[in-house]
Specification:
Blueprint lengths: L1 E2 L6 E2 L14 H10 L19 H4 L1 H6 L7 H6 L4 H33 L3 H31 L16
Antiparallel strand pairs: 1-2
Length: about 160
């Protein structure tokens, strides 16, 4: 004869549960421990929204748009409060202003060269415009790469100019 480990009542052979308290007998507990899966505790429902991301992660697209010519207006208006977007908007705005200034200067010099019938000077202006176009493209790509990485690195040569505060 065996006895219940919980209440001390006498148990008959082959009984799996105590007739007094309902506790499982020792042989049944050992068997259950072998096959029983661990019980998971209560887990509260997780929140449906993601945790707040860093400013750079939230505004990468705005930083990238800032280097696409006239699209610099989008982050200027849409992400005024973001330091990351504001930095890249400033860089993109400076780049756009320098490009526009070169276009205007190039148009004036082309008009002068055309009026003076100076084909050599006109060719020089064309070559310089072509080279500066590549430089502006490289600056835009550098800015886009920096914005995509979440970095706030200044552009070469023109990166120190601050228009937006």
């Amino acid at each position: 004869m065996a006895f219940c480990g919980k209440c001390g009542a006498q148990l008959n052979d082959g009984v799996k549960f105590c007739p007094s308290c309902g506790a499982p007998t020792g042989s049944e507990q050992a068997q259950q421990q072998t096959y029983q899966q661990p019980q998971q505790g209560y887990q509260p429902q997780q929140q449906a929204y993601a945790p707040v991301q860093s400013d750079a992660q939230q505004n990468k697209v705005m930083g990238i748009l800032a280097y696409l010519s006239w699209l610099v207006i989008v982050p200027w208006i849409a992400a005024k409060e973001s330091p990351f977007a504001r930095y890249h908007t400033n860089q993109g705005l400076v780049l756009a202003i320098v490009e526009i200034a070169w276009w205007i200067l190039s148009a004036i010099l082309t008009a002068i060269a055309t009026a003076a019938y100076s084909l050599g000077f006109l060719a020089v202006i064309g070559v310089i415009s072509w080279i500066l176009g590549i430089v502006f493209l490289v600056f835009s790509i550098l800015g886009i790469v920096n914005a995509a990485k979440g970095e706030m690195k200044p552009l070469p040569i023109i990166g120190g100019i601050k228009i937006l505060k």
